[in-house]
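Figure 3 (text version): structure tokens given as input.
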């Protein structure tokens, strides 16, 4: 197989998971700009996600969020998804928006609150049993706002204890993916603030526990691709929450702020043998002012472009330049791949997959945007993922 044929074949296997909450109204703490036609139910979110997959061919699964996507019958929801050409993906827990969680959830000083949070996490695993999901994604807003507010070590002990109980509940083929975030909503100390803390907990738990790298969850200037390379080497990279940031956890379209960083991340994924279904390539975004579905399509396309460039790196020339200490040549080889316009290649890949080469234009022509506005009068309640 020629190299280009191999790159095309690899791009056709790509799988980017879209988040259910990205289809609904969202905003910031200042304002939610509600949009017409947004989904009112988990089923309508899946119908929108199915459009993204139908047009891109590489977005086959949809992450759910509990309670925002709570239904009476998860097996029926899984069938609804399959009937629309997609599958249910990761289950996202939520221990951050009940009033009880003001001082934390599983790290809270009150054992009663910790029990409530743990019961929610265990409910999420029950839901995984019903949906057939592989991954439980855990992000904890837990933290403190002032020095002295709580005991930093005791909070780690509480975290360890709860994670161990959830880990014990996991069934065969199920994983827990622990996500870190350096700040927000806690402003002094976050209980899972960085990759090191997440890695240490996952190491203690066992092989079913891995780390999620949310690209918006690092201090400015962090070398995220180094974290990716290191976690891959330790077999502890479970997946990504892809998005873009200019300043904090902005949750903008991935690749929109720093496409070069996205390319470097995908290069380390490919270099480290991580371009497989073992890694969950998820989006985690909120589209506050832009139309939801085309923004998600753009994000998927941006991941495809970064991946295509990463797959085009001349690894033989790069290796030679690195081994001989030829700094300029090594950098030039990497930049050569990054500077390649891969849009024609991806258009060919889409046509070979029986898709329109331009998913955004195809969406615009599809009439879906008008259809859902007409059908979904009185869209989803404002509020993040409500
Ligand atoms: C929060 O900032 C994290 O990125 C979470 O991963 C995400 O927003 C949450 O999982 C949505 O439920
Ligand atoms: Zn995230
Ligand atoms: Zn986030």
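Below: residues designed for each position.
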């Amino acid at each position: 197989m020629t190299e280009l044929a191999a790159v095309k074949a690899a791009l056709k296997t790509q799988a980017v998971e879209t988040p259910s909450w990205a289809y609904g109204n969202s905003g910031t703490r200042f304002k939610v700009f509600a949009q017409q036609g947004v989904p009112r139910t988990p089923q309508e979110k899946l119908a929108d996600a199915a459009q993204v997959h139908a047009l891109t061919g590489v977005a086959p699964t949809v992450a759910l969020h509990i309670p925002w996507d709570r239904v009476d019958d998860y097996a029926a929801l899984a069938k609804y998804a399959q009937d629309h050409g997609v599958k249910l993906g990761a289950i996202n827990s939520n221990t951050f928006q009940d009033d009880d969680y003001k001082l934390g959830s599983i790290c809270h000083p009150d054992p009663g609150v910790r029990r409530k949070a743990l019961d929610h996490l265990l409910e999420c695993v029950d839901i995984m049993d019903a949906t057939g999901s592989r991954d439980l994604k855990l992000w904890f807003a837990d933290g403190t706002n002032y020095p002295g507010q709580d005991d930093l070590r005791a909070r780690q002990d509480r975290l360890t204890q709860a994670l161990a109980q959830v880990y014990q509940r996991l069934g065969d083929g199920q994983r827990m993916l622990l996500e870190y975030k350096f700040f927000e909503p806690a402003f002094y100390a976050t209980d899972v603030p960085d990759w090191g803390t997440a890695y240490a907990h996952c190491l203690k738990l066992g092989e079913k526990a891995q780390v999620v790298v949310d690209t918006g969850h690092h201090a400015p200037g962090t070398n995220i691709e180094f974290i990716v390379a290191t976690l891959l080497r330790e077999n502890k990279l479970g997946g990504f929450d892809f998005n873009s940031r200019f300043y904090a956890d902005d949750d903008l379209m991935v690749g929109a702020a720093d496409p070069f960083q996205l390319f470097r991340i995908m290069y380390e994924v490919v270099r480290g043998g991580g371009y497989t279904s073992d890694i969950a390539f998820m989006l985690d975004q909120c589209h506050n002012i832009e139309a939801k579905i085309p923004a998600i399509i753009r994000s998927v396309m941006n991941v495809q472009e970064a991946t295509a460039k990463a797959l085009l790196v001349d690894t033989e020339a790069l290796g030679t330049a690195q081994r001989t200490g030829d700094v300029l040549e090594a950098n030039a080889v990497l930049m050569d791949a990054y500077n390649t316009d891969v849009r024609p290649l991806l258009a060919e890949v889409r046509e070979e997959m029986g898709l329109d080469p331009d998913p955004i234009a195809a969406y615009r022509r599809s009439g879906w945007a008008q259809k859902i506005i007409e059908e979904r009068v009185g869209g989803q309640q404002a509020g993040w993922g409500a």
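The first strand starts at residue 18 and ends at 19.
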